[in-house]
């Protein structure tokens, strides 16, 4: 069984950390079962609320650290949306900002020892990516009707035959977006946590000779802090790019 200790064997089970476990005992997980994933997603929402609601509540002229962090984060995402999607895209800023904050803090909280990483699961990232896909597609058709299909028609191609081939490629590329969007995030987070767990296992097995694994863990942890931020940014900026395609579908 995974995770079971066997005397005399070198036991490292890096994938055990991704197991979804019911909070109140038992082994069966249904759609309504509170699990460790539920707990850490709930904690993410609480932390985001504390930062963005409680932190800047006073709106002091000389901002506190929490207010400064909230204002910098808000300004960063706002500028990203405005630069890529223009003034028209600012209508959808709250949705993109919420996505960014949720993914960012889910990634960061998952770096706490003995925590759980929701964003390492395709079930979570897939829902987020599918929601983005459905939302931007709906926006495209609502704003442009059948004109949204101009997104797939490369009018600058020299021949009609080439335009048809490119249109097929564009359609396939469009429907692959949710898959690539979700796998990119989940794969990067899972890979980093797996490597950390492997080196932690080496450190535990080597005892006093664990200097090299501990140095490696420190370096990888620093890298994972960077990855946690970058992956939230990548997910958000791709969402804005897809939104821009929906708002301005012509090539």
Describe the structure.
The protein is mainly α and 251 residues long. The chain has one domain (34-56, 63-247). Helix content is 67%, strand content 0%. The protein is built from six helices and no strands. It has helices at 36-54, 65-89, 93-109, 122-144, 160-206, 211-247. The longest helix is centred in the C-terminal third of the chain and has 47 residues, at 160-206. Mean pLDDT is 87; it is low at 1-9.
Task: Give the gist of this structure.
The protein is mostly helical and 251 residues long. It is 67% helix and 0% strand.
Key features?
single chain; 251 residues; mainly alpha; 6 helices; globular
| Number of beta strands | 0
Integer-rounded radius of gyration: 22 Å
Q: Beta-strand level of the residues, as a percent range?
A: under 5%
**Structural class category:** mainly alpha
Question: How many H/I helical runs?
Answer: 6
Q: How is the main sheet built?
A: none
Domain count: 1
Provide mean pLDDT, rounded: 87
Low-pLDDT windows of residues: 1-9
SSE series = HHHHHH
Helical proportion, percent range: 55-70%
Tell me, briefly, the overall form. globular
N-end to C-end Cα span: 54 Å
Any chance you could write out the topology, listing elements then pairs?
Blueprint: H1 36-54, H2 65-89, H3 93-109, H4 122-144, H5 160-206, H6 211-247
């Amino acid at each position: 069984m995974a995770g079971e200790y066997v005397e005399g064997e070198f036991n490292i089970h890096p994938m055990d950390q991704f197991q979804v476990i019911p909070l109140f005992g038992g082994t069966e997980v249904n759609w309504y079962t509170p699990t460790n994933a539920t707990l850490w997603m709930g904690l993410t929402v609480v932390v985001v609320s504390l930062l963005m609601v409680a932190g800047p509540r006073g709106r002091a002229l000389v901002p506190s650290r929490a207010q400064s962090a909230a204002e910098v984060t808000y300004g960063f995402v706002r500028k990203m949306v405005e630069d890529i999607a223009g003034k028209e895209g600012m209508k959808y800023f709250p949705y993109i900002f919420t996505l960014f904050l949720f993914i960012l803090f889910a990634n960061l909280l998952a770096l706490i020892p003995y925590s759980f990483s929701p964003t390492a699961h395709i079930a979570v990232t897939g829902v987020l990516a599918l929601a983005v896909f459905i939302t931007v597609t709906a926006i495209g058709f609502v704003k442009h009707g059948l004109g949204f299909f101009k997104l797939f028609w490369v009018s600058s191609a020299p021949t009609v035959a080439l335009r048809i081939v490119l249109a097929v490629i564009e359609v396939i590329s469009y429907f692959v977006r949710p898959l690539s969007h979700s796998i990119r995030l989940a794969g990067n987070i899972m890979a980093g946590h797996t490597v950390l767990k492997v080196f932690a296992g080496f450190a535990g097995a080597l005892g006093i000779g664990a200097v090299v694994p501990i140095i490696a863990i420190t370096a990888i942890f620093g890298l994972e802090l960077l990855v946690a931020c970058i992956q939230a940014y990548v997910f958000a900026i791709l969402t804005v790019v897809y939104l821009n395609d929906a708002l301005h579908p012509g090539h």
